[in-house]
Structures are given as structure tokens and as C-alpha cells.
Design brief:
The chain is mainly alpha-helical and about 300 residues long. It contains 13 helices and no strands. Helix 11 packs antiparallel against helix 12. The longest helix is centred in the N-terminal third of the chain and has 25 residues.
Length: about 300
């Protein structure tokens, strides 16, 4: 091999790693490192609208590129595994879902993706446990506050239509899985479950069961809150079950976690904040800190 070819080889390798990081970043929203799963998740986003698949791709790419520019130390494989892409992808998706028109919202989301990636890197240095989606939550809250303060045009929420004669609320069993990406719709949620099944079948079962338990609890309340059919009261439950199972916890811990995220979601809403994935983060941090204290090690 010539000196010139040898010099170019690391560049090609780096490009392949970054190319892998984009779908992996989408997959890591559900704590999975898998390109096929990420691609299926992108299909789910595209079913809501091609612009949302584009937003997810752009966000994940910005996260990977920002992490590269920050010179994240070894193991650099964390970038190709998507660990610096999922927060950025969620920020861009959250911004384009919340505000319009699409172009300006996308630009704001890209700026937010950079901020979220920097926060993720800071969390790497300061936190004893993985940040999970905390950088997304903080950045999204800042964007929402800024948008409301400057009267940005808000996007209209998507309605959930009955399917095959079903009333809207039971569709939350599927739409909850899509709401992790801030999307609504039973079909995108079903595709997300397929993506989880590609990673591990028990994760798809866990996500569905988490959403089902959350829906049962909410429906049993004396007053059913609005928006149940969109899955907004089930997605943290679905996500925390996947998170706990992925990191080696038991089904018993999942049974404790689902009511916890519902209580946290109610508390966050009571103080006037959009919960997003904050309940998931708080429950995962609790589980991570418990494991760290007991074993001295936390699985990312």
C-alpha cells in the first residue's frame, strides 16, 4: 500500500463510522445499538411525515459530527454506536413537532442539537451514571420556553383517528411507542415495536406491556385526562421498561417503574412543564445509582 493510500485509509474508516452513527443514533432513543433497528425507526417517522424522518436523520448526524468536533476520547466507538446522536435527534424532532414553519424550526433544532450534544459530553465528565435523555429534556425545555416567549408559531397537534372500528383510546397501546419520538399514530407505533423486536423480541413485548399497564392505570382514574389516545401517558412507561430490560434489570423492577413514571409525569405537568422523557430519566437514574452503590458499575 502506498503512503498516500495509507494516509487516506483512516479517513475512509472515519466516514464509515460516522455513516453508521446516524441510524444507530436513532436506534439509541430506545437504548439499542443497531443499524437495522434505527432504519425501521426511521420508517416509522416517515409514516408520520417524510420531514420527520429527515429531522431525525439530521439531528443524529449533527450529534455525531458535534461529538467528533469535541474530540470525544476513546473509546471513540461510542460515536459510531449512536451514543451522541439520540439526544440530538430528539431535540430536532421535538422542535419541528412543536413549531412551524418547518425550515426555521429545523434550523433552531439543529442549533439545539449542538447544545444537547455538548451537554451530553459535559454529563460524561460530571455524572457518575449515564445521562440518558437528560440533555434532550433540558434543551427542549429551553427551546419551548424561548418559542413561547417570542411567540413562535406553534404546530397543531395531530389527531388520532379510530381504526377498524376501535375507539381512539385503545390505540394508545401502539401510539405510545411512537410518542417516544414525539410522534402520534398507531401505525408508526406498530413499526417501532417491529424495530424493537428486531433488536430483541422481549423488548417489544416489554414496551407494549408497559404502555398497556399505563393505559389501564390512567383509564381507571376518576377523571380521564385528555390526549390519552395519542400515547402521551404511556410512552415513558414503554421506554422505561425497555431501558430496564436492556440494562439487565428484571420484570419485577419494571412493575415498580411504571407507576413511578406515571406519578413523576403528573408532578412535572403540575408545575407547568412538558414532561417529555424526564420521568424515564429520573427512574433510570434511580436504578443506575442503586446499581452503582451496590456493584460499583453501571451498564450504559
Amino acid at each position: 500500500m502506498s503512503d498516500t493510500a495509507a494516509a487516506k485509509e483512516p479517513v475512509r474508516h472515519g466516514a464509515r463510522q460516522l455513516l453508521r452513527a446516524v441510524p444507530a443514533g436513532i436506534s439509541q432513543v430506545y437504548l439499542q445499538d443497531g443499524v437495522p433497528t434505527g432504519i425501521v425507526f426511521l420508517v416509522a417517522l416517515a409514516l408520520v411525515g417524510p420531514e420527520f424522518a429527515l429531522a431525525g436523520l439530521v439531528g443524529s448526524a449533527v450529534g455525531a459530527l458535534t461529538a467528533t468536533a469535541l474530540r470525544v476520547p476513546r473509546p471513540r466507538e461510542r460515536i459510531s454506536q449512536g451514543l451522541f446522536g439520540f439526544n440530538a435527534a430528539l431535540v430536532v424532532l421535538g422542535t419541528v413537532v412543536s413549531f412551524q414553519p418547518f425550515g426555521p424550526a429545523l434550523l433552531v433544532g439543529i442549533a439545539g442539537a449542538v447544545v444537547a450534544t455538548v451537554l451530553a459530553r459535559v454529563a460524561d465528565l460530571l455524572l457518575a451514571v449515564p445521562a440518558r435523555t437528560a440533555p434532550f429534556v433540558l434543551t427542549y425545555w429551553l427551546i419551548v420556553y424561548t418559542g413561547h416567549h417570542f411567540d413562535w408559531v406553534r404546530a397543531a397537534p395531530a389527531a388520532v383517528s379510530p381504526v377498524l372500528g376501535l375507539e381512539a383510546d385503545p390505540l394508545a397501546l401502539f401510539s405510545a411507542e411512537a410518542e417516544v419520538f414525539l410522534m402520534s399514530g398507531w401505525l408508526p407505533g406498530l413499526v417501532v415495536l417491529i424495530g424493537l423486536a428486531i433488536a430483541r423480541f422481549r423488548l417489544a413485548v416489554g414496551a407494549f406491556c408497559g404502555a398497556a399497564v399505563a393505559l389501564a392505570v390512567v383509564e381507571a382514574l376518576p377523571f380521564t385526562p385528555p390526549g390519552v389516545a395519542s400515547g402521551v401517558y404511556g410512552f415513558n412507561a414503554a421506554l422505561v421498561v425497555v431501558g430496564l430490560l436492556t440494562t439487565g434489570r428484571t420484570w419485577r423492577s419494571c412493575l415498580l417503574a411504571v407507576p413511578a413514571v406515571l406519578l413523576l409525569q403528573g408532578g412535572i405537568e403540575a408545575v407547568g412543564l412538558v414532561p417529555t422523557t424526564a420521568p424515564f430519566v429520573l427512574v433510570m437514574w434511580t436504578a443506575d445509582l442503586h446499581r452503582l452503590r451496590r456493584t460499583g458499575f453501571v451498564r450504559p
